[in-house]
Amino acid sequence: MDYKTTVFLPKTDFPMKGGLPKREPELLAQWAAVDLYARCRDAARGREKFILHDGPPYANGHLHFGHALNKILKDVISRSQQMMGKDANYVPGWDCHGLPIEWKIEERYRAEGKDKDEVPIVEFRKECREFAARWIDIQRAEFKRLGIIGDWDNPYTTMNFAAEARIAGELGKFLMDGSLYKGAKPVMWSVVEKTALAEAEVEYHDHVSPAIFVRFAVRNAARGELDGAAVVIWTTTPWTIPANRAIAFGADIDYVVIEVGAVSDTAAARPGDRLVLAQALAAQVCVASGIESHDVVAHLKGAELAGTACAHPLDADGFDFDVPLLEADFVEVDTGTGFVHIAPGHGADDWELGIANAIAVPDTVGPDGRYLEHVPVFAGIPVLEFDPKKKKSRFPANRAVMEKLSERGGLLASEKIEHSYPHSWRSKAPLIFRNTPQWFISMEKHDLRQTALTAIDNTKFFPAKGKNRLRSMIESRPDWCVSRQRAWGVPITVFVNKKTGEPLRDPAVMARIVDIFKQEGGDAWFARDAQDFLGDAHRADDFEQVTDILDVWFDSGSTHAFVLEDRPDLQWPASLYLEGSDQHRGWFHSSLLEACGTRGRAPYEAVLTHGFLLDQKGYKMSKSEGNTLSPKDVEERYGADILRLWVVGSDYTEDLRIGPDILKSHSDIYRRLRNTLRFLLGNLSGFNAAERVGPAEMPELERWVLHRLWEISDGVRQANENFQFHGLFTELHNFCATDLSAFYFDIRKDALYCDGSDSPVRRAARTVLDILFNHLTVWLAPFICFTAEEAWKARHPEVKESIHLQLFPDVPEAWGDPALARKWAKVRDLRRVVTGALEIERAEKRIGSSLHSHPQVFAVEDYVRAMTGIDLGVIAITSGAELIAGTPPAGAFTLPDVVGVGVVSAPADGEKCERCWKITPEVGQDDAHPTLCMRCADVVRRKA
Question: The Methionyl/Valyl/Leucyl/Isoleucyl-tRNA synthetase anticodon-binding domain covers which part of the protein (predicted)?
Answer without folding.
Answer: 702-851
